[in-house]
Amino acid sequence: MTSANDIAAAADALKRGELVAFPTETVYGLGADATDDRAVASVFVVKGRPAFNPLIVHVAEAEAAFRLGDFSGEARRLAKAFWPGPLTIVVKRAGDCPVSLLASAGLPSIALRVPDHPMALELLRAVDRPVVAPSANPSGRVSPTAAEHVRRGLGNKVAIVLDGGRCRVGVESTVVSFLGERPTILRPGGVARDKIEAAIGAPVAVETHAARPHAPGQLASHYAPHAELRLHAEAPRNGEVYLGFGGRDFGPYNLSRQGDVVEAAANLFRLLHDIDATGAAKIAVAPVPHHGLGDAINDRLKRAAAPREAQ
Ligand code: TXA
Ligand code: MG
Predict the structure, then answer these.
(1) Which among 154, 162, 173, 160 is positioned nearest to 45, based on CA atoms?
(2) 142 C-alpha vs ligand 2 centroid, how far in Å?
């Protein structure tokens, strides 16, 4: 089992940008510092996720969540009714939200939760930063509800696996979005719908899988830069801001000067955002190789470059 020393070591590892698997009441999570683009990118690598789905951000206190997102009174009420517990709330990112845009998959929203597990809470307090944590299993496989599942699935890809025994709930948290006109369940989970409706005092909507914004095809319509994108560009033309990769480097913006696709994934959304903020009308993007996370990067770039009507 896990000691206080192990938790301190895990918190240090998270602060260094490493991944730590830890127990929650729902399933084991694969944790990374949510404010560290590169650490968040490595979550996608270790899970073998083909696309940048948005991730849930975990914090130790509701107050911390209220600072990271814009919570309405109704959203706060729901949080207070079920946190700590198997409920995730999706709201708009706060203006000064320090969480990596990659964790939000480029969306203007953020998913937050306070887990109900003493070890998870102790870890979150010790690290004192928001932590992204999808289930600690390879993409497409069953979620882990014991430390040995994590070791079997991810083996030596995770430095530290905190062992908190079997997960109490065993299915992921219920995800409720407050982005629309009324609260909407995006993913059924550990808190049943009728309990949520009782806490809110009104019926909630339920969106089917197809309507969920994390499907890769739907992300594009949520995030595309204002600027027009030209892909596979060897060099910038007149009037274009260049987004480089590796040795193709013209100006201040480069996804990864070392030509590392993991670093490029970590930087992608943030750099597009930065270039957009300059008011640039045209962005030329260097070719990005397809290996590893390169596939996901190319997919996202292709969608961002597609004619807006077609999205
Ligand atoms: O029980 C859980 O929630 C587990 C444990 C480890 O805490 N975590 C978990 O995390 O399942 P994750 O990152 O795999 O959950 C991702 C889900 C997506 O499928 C999506 O439904 C929702 O959270 N989500 C995250 N960010 C979102 C956003 N900005 N907008 C809409 N949905 C979002
Ligand atoms: Mg999962």
Answers:
(1) 154
(2) 8
pLDDT averaged over consecutive 10-residue blocks of the chain (311 residues)?
A: 86 98 96 97 90 92 98 97 98 97 94 98 98 92 88 91 91 93 91 91 79 42 72 97 98 96 83 87 96 78 71 33
- Per the document, the length of the chain is 311
User: Which of 93, 37, 53, 43 shows the shortest CA–CA distance to 217?
Assistant: 53
User: Among all ligands shown, which has an atom nearest to the Cα of 20?
Assistant: 1
Place of tokens 């597990």: 117
Walk me through the domains of the chain, giving residue ranges and CATH numbers: 4-206 (3.90.870.10), 228-305 (3.40.50.11030)
Of 282, 227, 275, whose CA–CA distance to 255 is shortest? Answer: 275
Q: How many H helices and E strands in the chain?
A: 10, 14
What pTM, to 2 d.p., does this model score? 0.83
Q: In this structure, which residue's CA is closest to atom 1 in ligand 1?
A: 172
